[in-house]
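User: Fold this; tokens only.

Assistant: Input:
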Amino acid sequence: MTIADECVQLVAKQFVTTLDWQLASLEQLDAIADRLLESGPLSAERLDLWWKLIGAYLGEVIIRALDGTWIEHEQAEGAYAVAVLGITGFPFAITARVLQGEPYKSFASFGRSLPAIANRKR
């Protein structure tokens, strides 16, 4: 079982939500993040757990949907990045920003932005 699979299982257990590995499921993941943060910032331990689980799921969804791969990158110290469509994405960085309550950050917008960015590069 992968870390991303653990995310799917924990979300199903705690939030009665089924994540299906599709880009559209990232909207559900945004709703989960909202619920996690509704009573305030996450404790360091919960932040670390959810950062790891959600970051792994987010990366796997992007890789599966956009035919990418996990890579190591100097800007992703301590975590992996994804290479898709000729660009690099940082799912764990986005996850940290969302889980720390940064405005205007979302998992769904990350998933939608990568193809748009790749098209602009061409």
